[in-house]
Every structure is written in structure tokens, then in C-alpha cells.
Amino acid sequence: MWIVPDTGQGTLDDIKYILMPVELMFISYEIYKVYQIISNFRRNRAVDSHPIDTLRKSLEESLSNSKIASLLVHDASVFYYALFSWRKKPYLQTGAASFSYHKNSNWLITILILSKILLIEGICIHILLMQWSPIAAWVLSLGNLYIIILLIADYRAMCLNPILVSKQEIRVQYGIQMLSKIDIDNIESVSMIKFMKLTKNDLKTSFTPLVIEPNILIRLKSKIPVIRLFGKRQMVDQVYLSLDKPHEFQVECHKLMDRPNNI
């Protein structure tokens, strides 16, 4: 107040009286949205429902912008799997066959190597950047920390979310890299493969795991939406997976696909 001249005190008071109601309205709106999300979560929660699926549905019902909702769900998933899922059991569904995909892969070793590189190089670069810009140094370090948390979350999500094959659909959650549900009627073929590098056009309509070489290809009759990293949505007609027991998965899918009307 001492810095503002007496002639400007009246204007400052007017601004305060205008901003205070606006701020209160904004806080009230945030509280209302949080309450709405919690209410929707409780209503949508079911016995066999996945907590992240329930959270996604609740956020999409509460927020008008689906992109913001998807990004919030992604970040919530990252911290849930990295920090709060260590005593959780794998998500299973009654009557669905489950297929793991983390046991025979080298993804855990890759994560450990990448985390070590990020830590060592991050510390060195942090020290160098501190001499130029402390803000830039901390931004870089926090970015490296987030990537490490993201990698840990992805592996934990792999452990807790096997591929689930039921009579009507396949629930495909590959870590936090991809989530979708595939109707059995929409499957054209399920085959074991030796992966070859895809063209740019194929990549636009395909899901492939990061780093890991796939051993299963699911071809679809029509494109379906999948949720990728950071909540990004993509339409795909080919899903590449790396499973621990690819042959058993193929047999199970063919058994359902060959049933009359998939009953």
C-alpha cells in the first residue's frame, strides 16, 4: 500500500472488490467439480470394474473437454501405478482368460538401464546447468524424474493388467501405453508373427509396444479407438502385442471366433 500513491488507492480498492467475488466463484466451481467427480466415481463403481476405467468415465462425465479428462486420467494412472499399487493384485474378470505379457520381455531390464542413465546424466547436467540457470536445471531434473516414474508406472501396469479374453471382447491394456476393448466379432485374424518394421502409413493405424518386439498381430475388420500415452486417442485396425504365451492366446481367440455367432 505504501508504494501505491494516494490517488491510486481508490482504483486498487475497486480492483480488490471485483477480484474477490471472481476468485470465490472460481474456487466454488472447482469444489463443485471435485464433488461431481467423486459422486460420479461412486455411482460408476461396480464389483468387476477397473478403478482407472471408472475414473476415466467419471471425469469424462464431469468435464466437458474430453482431452483434458484423458490427460488427467493418464497422470492419475501414472502416479497410481508407480506409488500406490504395490500391494494390489492383478485385475481379472470372471469368466475371462488372462494372458500376461511382462514375464518374458526385457522391458524391466530396459527400464532399469534407462533409469540409471537418466539419474547419472541428470545429476551431471543439473550441476552444469546450475551455473547458468537454476530454474532450467530444476526443470530438467523434474522432467527426468517424471520419465522415471512413468517407466515404473508402465511396468507396474503391465504386472497388474493382463490381456483379458472373454466371450464378447478382448480387453487390451498394455501397461499405460495402450487401452482398448476389441469385440470378438470385429476380429479378422489373430496370428503369431516375427515383427518387421512398419511403414509410416501402417504406424498411423497400428499399435506397437515400445522397444519390445511383438509376437502377436490382431487384424481388425474395422478401426477402433485406442487410448495411448498422455491420453492421446488413435484409430487403429492392427494391434501388435508381445505376450508370454502367444500360442495359447491365439488358440483361445480362434476358439471364440469360430463359435457360431460367438455365443
What would your notes on this structure say?
- This protein has 7 helices and 8 strands; from the N terminus they run αααβααββββαβββα.
- Helix 1 packs across helix 2 (51-62) and helix 4 (107-130) runs antiparallel to helix 5 (134-160).
- The model has no long low-confidence stretch (mean pLDDT 83).
- It has helices at 6-44, 51-62, 66-83, 107-130, 134-160, 200-204, 246-257; strands spanning 97-99, 163-165, 169-174, 178-183, 187-192, 206-207, 216-228, 233-241.
- The longest helix is centred in the first third of the chain and has 39 residues, at 6-44.
- Strands 1, 2, 3, 4, 5, 6, 7 and 8 form an 8-stranded mixed beta sheet that branches.
- By secondary structure, it is an alpha+beta fold.
- Among the domains are: 6-83; 163-262, no CATH class.
Task: Give the topology string: H per helix, E per strand.
Answer: HHHEHHEEEEHEEEH
Proportion in helices = 40-55%
Number of strands: 8
Uncertain spans: none
Shape: globular
Distance between the termini: 76 Å
Instruction: Quote the average pLDDT.
Output: 83
Number of helices: 7
Largest sheet: 8 strands, mixed
What class, by secondary structure content?
alpha+beta
What is the rounded Rg?
24 Å
Strand portion, in percent? 15-25%
Keywords: Membrane, Transmembrane, Transmembrane helix
